Amino acid sequence: MTDSASERPHSPSWAYTFGRMALAPLARAVYRPRVEGKNNIPRDGAVIFASNHLSVIDSFAIPIAAAPRPVHFLAKSEYFEGPGFGGWLSKTFFTAIGAVPVRRGAGQAAMDALERQKEILASGAAVALHPEGTRSRDGRLYKGRTGIAYLALETGAPVVPIGLIGTDKVMPVGAKMPSFRERVVVKFGEPLDLSHHGPATSGRARRTATDEIMSAIHALSGQELAGTYNELPAQGAVEKIKRALPHERK
Description:
The protein has 250 residues and is α/β, with parallel strands linked by helices. It has a domain at 33-66 and 111-227 and 234-244. 38% of the residues lie in helices and 12% in strands. The protein has helices at 14-31, 58-66, 84-96, 108-122, 147-155, 167-170, 203-221, 237-244, and strands spanning 34-36, 47-51, 73-76, 99-102, 126-129, 159-165, 185-188. The protein has a five-stranded mixed beta sheet, with helices on both faces. A two-stranded parallel sheet has the order 3-4. The two termini are 23 Å apart.
């Protein structure tokens, strides 16, 4: 990982400071988000924000609603590594909205992402995650993957559940430009202490803790429950067999 990718996320850069001063007020003026339960956001210390995932703008809506508390989320390292002016502009924009670069994928890449999030929390900062993994294309709430519970149980950080409403109407799947007619609602729930579920090394503890998080998100968002994981159709016989076998979704 490059030096820029390993910068301390809790030390705000000029781009992040600019984003909070310029982009956030502009977004609030345009979309008039209604924020509920903001008093549930811890003023300091490590915290994990866990929300449903309806649109590409979800990762922008959360930091705006949580202000002045800085919030960081992972973004593909490619956004920070492009050449020329376009690459600089992309890096500056994603830094301004609190994104932290990470190489995504399975195996070592997944472990690196987890370690990056642990580093952010160890610094006393906040991270935002979507336990469903990918956007819901039908508006339903899918089962959460247990990586978020591992992170919470391993670090001891409380989890603040979030219910996002309306982001899918502002920026529907496939849309190239956002709508300026819709209003977003962001609901923050009470912080969850998940330590009673057991250690992070326990698969059962991770599963039950994740289910508690998703139940809290459901209470806030009011979505229909899908009862399954949000996955793209399996490609090939091997992938279909792997998905048919019982295993823990990270």
